């Protein structure tokens, strides 16, 4: 992984480049695994793969590598499908699989380019529907990808034009040159097998997990997900869940002795947060920890990156809180039972009336019993480091209960439990707890403004604090 000093040097060079500079980011620089293989695997698991495509797709999933035939097979499998359905599947695959292969080093550099006012072009040989959700989350100004045929909102199953895949990256280089209409490419980031694309940039950077690629400047990045869990990951995960079960058992005995469900839940949270994360090799560094206690009862809002977020909240908040979760969370083994025991409100996101009814007990606990509430205003885990749109539920609760709102900004949680994975990795999660936000002057008429204000505070910290 690049040393922090190296990334700082690259960021300084980015900031020194003029506003409007054109930056090209190839999918081979941004993703550590094949987007084509991820989509082929999803089609195979769903039973949509034609029998003629099976041998090639099996070889692709076994690591044979992308080629033009693989791209055309994927596109052919979309024949007759609704364009919006394919787009929805692409976002799901990004959330559940490709998100784990995103290189955080590249994500941070692209963020720096955007702050500098540069024109970011994402390119790749994968078809446009595959890369479109990634381009959206990345904030790319343009997407140059393999185009597909569409007729009246239905995919034809044919490639429109060239497949942007060849041995030297010439097809991508030509397509990018056409898209930027002759403007010079100030920065180009690509994998080692994109010589022609790299040669088109004034400052080409090879992005690789190994140093010394072809004599060019190389950004050495850390290996990513997409592989089987290591024995160490399995042991960390077993240690975490062992601590969870042990804490629940001990807490149950204490709760029965004291005849207090609240004591049982609070003790489980504290032990799981401390011991469970320690056994998993996960450290938590907190700035603004005093704000976790200064305004209770309150509504804690946090950005949702990973399944480990629940354990992080247990460690941070210790006790005296409950939460809100999507209805499906009630069915998660072990966690679902704990959520019910802790009085979590389960919300059906597709049923507005049910959601309001489910939240009423949470409002009463805040207002009448002094409990705090933890809720992710995004509503679901984000597929990439980009912060999702905030929903109004948490803000309505804070307004109705007349309590402050405390933002908890979580960094790096996706790195210790990759999106779509079930095992834990060692590492450090950084957390910023922001000062409490007074809600006494809020009203239903101004609520949308407060939602945007709080989200802007998250964005400012996520994109600039570390």
Automatic annotation (TrEMBL):
UniProt keyword list: Acyltransferase, Lipid biosynthesis, Lipid metabolism, Phospholipid biosynthesis, Phospholipid metabolism, Transferase
Signal peptide from the UniProt entry: none
InterPro entries in the cross-refs: AGP_acyltrans, HAD-like_sf, HAD_sf, Plipid/glycerol_acylTrfase
Top-rank taxon, per record: Bacteria
Enzyme Commission code(s) on record: 2.3.1.51
Catalytic activity: a 1-acyl-sn-glycero-3-phosphate + an acyl-CoA = a 1,2-diacyl-sn-glycero-3-phosphate + CoA
Membrane-crossing segments per the record: none
Broadest EC class assigned to this enzyme: transferase
Any one GO molecular function term: 1-acylglycerol-3-phosphate O-acyltransferase activity
CDD domains: LPLAT_AGPAT-like
Domain Phospholipid/glycerol acyltransferase: 298-413
The family this protein is said to belong to: Belongs to the 1-acyl-sn-glycerol-3-phosphate acyltransferase family.
Domain topic, free-text comment: The HXXXXD motif is essential for acyltransferase activity and may constitute the binding site for the phosphate moiety of the glycerol-3-phosphate.
NCBIfam families the record matches: AGP_acyltrn
Protein name per UniProt: 1-acyl-sn-glycerol-3-phosphate acyltransferase
Organism: Actinomycetospora lemnae
